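Input (Alpha/beta hydrolase):
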Amino acid sequence: MATVTHQTAPTQFAEAGGVRYAYRRLGPAGTVPLVMLQHFTGNLDNWDPALVDALAAEREVVLVDYPGVASSTGTPATTVAELAHQMITFTVALGLERIDLLGFSLGGFAAQDMALVRPRLVRRLVLAGTGPKGAPGMHGWRKDIETHARAEVPTGEDLLHIFFAHTETSRAKGVEFLGRFMARTEDRDVPSSLASRDAQYDAVLEWGIPDHSALQRLTGIRCPTLIVQGDDDLMIPTKVSHLMAGLIPDARILVYPDAAHASLFQYPAEAAKDINEFLG
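Output:
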């Protein structure tokens, strides 16, 4: 039987709370599933196939579209707290009682909240290219990043500007990523709507309102946590990853060189190896 890959995993649907969640599952069943929460406006196909397939070589992986985003029905969340509860509802719909959780960017915001409000659900936590509620430098993105991130019809150039360091070497890795992520031709996910984009940016801004006291929430995350980041994230400052690492009681941090927001997609083989070792 052919191995199911990121390119061939069928899109499935689960219904809960009036929402039809679009998701894909791949990798060996019987392991603790790794649920992966996507970045701003991202859909099932915005993950790097090289990363997903390398993770799924060792464990079951579950990708999902948030409500109101891409192929999922429902109303998009306008706060991270709401998004976290939507994702908890999704895990219940799939009958998942214990998961590992990887949140990238906006997905990392939701993952932090999930680990805080449903600690029995999350065994291990991976936070990639993300930051804590209320931290300095989190209240929206700098102008050029916001312009590219909010493009009505995003292009490869927009992704390169946001996700990769503005160096020749990092951009070259970014071009390789663009080739991988466009490789799936059958049953591709639909793009996210402008309404879901605007709802998600409201959630990003609300999360980032300066609030020093909100940082104390991180001390409540009790599961082992791996923080993954590039050394020069232009979207969510790398320094706030170090802040998270200092405040989450059982956390360690990996910073990849010559990388920005999407270090996971610049170094998919290395990131998958590091994440699989941590989860194992």
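The mean pLDDT is 97.
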